[in-house]
Design goal:
This protein has 388 residues and is α/β, with parallel strands linked by helices. The chain contains ten helices and nine strands. It has helices spanning 3-9, 75-88, 109-115, 133-150, 162-179, 196-203, 221-227, 250-259, 292-295, 356-387; strands at residues 154-156, 186-190, 207-211, 232-238, 263-267, 287-289, 310-312, 324-328, 331-335. The strands form two sheets. Strands 1-7-6-5-4-2-3 form a seven-stranded mixed sheet, sandwiched between helices. Strands 8-9 form a two-stranded antiparallel ribbon. It is globular, with a radius of gyration of 26 Å. The two termini are 37 Å apart.
């Protein structure tokens, strides 16, 4: 028996009658719950269905021979099961969000109300464009403010998460290098980077080399310069970094990277700490993904819908993934294919246009704060982080 099991074995709730072991013994949120298919009890049914009338089969001999495969449960079993599942949802009224690496975990109720407005909640991506002009205008407005806050000329909104955004950004880097006939093979990644950074670089076919940190917890500039060369495609840096420190030599870092002919990719995981205060474009950054859940209050994790827009510098912008929203004579239109003006696009990364519900929430948050409010967001975030 492990020390953990021994420590729990004396607890009155630990033992044969309970497979759930916690430090306190509290089982308010049922941690372990059988799948509804595992609770199958043949003969039980939560509804009374009338006997179907006797009709001649028109299935051409393809009648079902076995069970349909749905679980048999009584009505109370079904109610209890879905009630327990609802208790697993971690929400603003359950407590402080437990995941610590990200810089925002507040999901205002107002955002949820906006996302549930008719026309946003039930909009469908296959509707005729003439019937979704309002939704397209919201997406276009969000894109405008993301570009304004970052100083970048273009943004791709379709990526579904931060790691997906990284993939998008690095694919545009690869496309831009190929377009100029520049074959490069290495990506430099600081040791403090998120694990998705080297994984993304490897997925794009690059070898990865780590850059150590200096005694101040920031990128070792001398080590970075020593690694740079004509075969380096990009540097993937997080700023503020994963240690929570602003890379105060970032202008020199950007200059060195660009002098080597490489691109500067920035992980925007901690953009919440500088939003409204610093524009990444002015730091020399070429591509930056923005986690809407980390900076603009959209829900995070749990298998729910994510959103990781990527802002792009001018050289990378033509390679952004479709779809794009464009202003036409008849209103807003959508460029959905990598042809004509979008011929240099890396193509489609995701079905349809991104996560509409996340866009509504993010824009609601921006409009609630305004320009001065977003600046205060960064100040408060840094103050709170230092306090903790």
């Amino acid at each position: 028996m492990s020390e953990w099991s021994q420590a729990l074995s004396g607890h009155p709730e630990a033992g044969a009658s309970s497979m759930i072991q916690t430090i306190s013994g509290n089982r308010g949120l049922q941690i372990e719950e059988k799948l509804i298919f595992e609770q199958d009890s043949p003969g039980h049914c939560g509804v009374d269905l009338p006997e179907p009338p006797a009709v001649k089969s028109r299935l051409g001999g393809l009648d079902r021979k076995g069970a349909i495969g749905l679980p048999g449960l009584s009505e109370p079993q079904v109610v209890r099961h879905f009630t327990r599942l609802s208790q697993k949802n971690y929400a603003i009224d359950s407590g402080l969000y437990p995941l610590g690496s990200c810089t925002m975990k507040h999901n205002p109720r107002l955002n949820e109300k906006m996302a549930r407005l008719p026309g946003f909640a039930d909009v469908h991506p296959l509707q005729p464009l003439s019937t979704v002009q309002g939704a397209l205008e919201l997406i276009d407005t969000l894109a405008h403010w993301l570009k304004t806050l970052t100083g970048m000329p273009a943004v791709a909104l379709s990526p579904a998460a931060g790691a997906h955004g990284e993939l998008c950004g690095m694919m545009t880097v690869r496309a831009a290098l190929e377009a100029r006939g520049d074959k490069r093979s290495r990506i430099l990644v600081p040791e403090s980077a998120h694990g998705t950074n080297p994984a993304t670089a490897a997925a794009c076919g690059y070898s990865v080399e780590a850059i150590p940190a200096n005694a101040r917890g920031r990128v070792d500039l001398a080590a970075l310069k020593a690694k740079l060369g004509p075969d380096v495609a990009a540097l993937m840096l997080t700023n503020p970094n994963t240690c929570g420190l602003f890379e105060d030599e970032i202008l020199e870092i950007a200059a060195a990277v660009h002098a080597a002919g490489a691109f500067f990719y920035c992980d925007g995981a901690n953009f919440n700490a500088i939003v409204g205060r610093v524009r990444p474009a002015e730091l020399g950054i070429d591509a930056l993904h923005i986690n809407l859940h980390k900076t603009f209050s959209t829900p995070h994790g749990g298998g729910g819908p994510g959103s990781g827009p990527v802002v792009l510098a001018a050289e990378l912008a033509p390679h952004a993934p479709v779809p794009w929203i464009v202003h036409g004579p008849g209103g807003l239109d959508v460029v959905e294919h990598a042809t004509a003006d979008a011929a240099r696009s890396i193509g489609r990364l995701k079905g349809f246009h991104g996560q509409m519900g996340m866009f509504v929430r993010a824009l609601s948050y921006m409009m609630s704060h305004g320009v001065d409010g977003l600046k205060q967001v960064a100040e408060d975030a840094v103050l709170n982080a230092n306090y903790l």
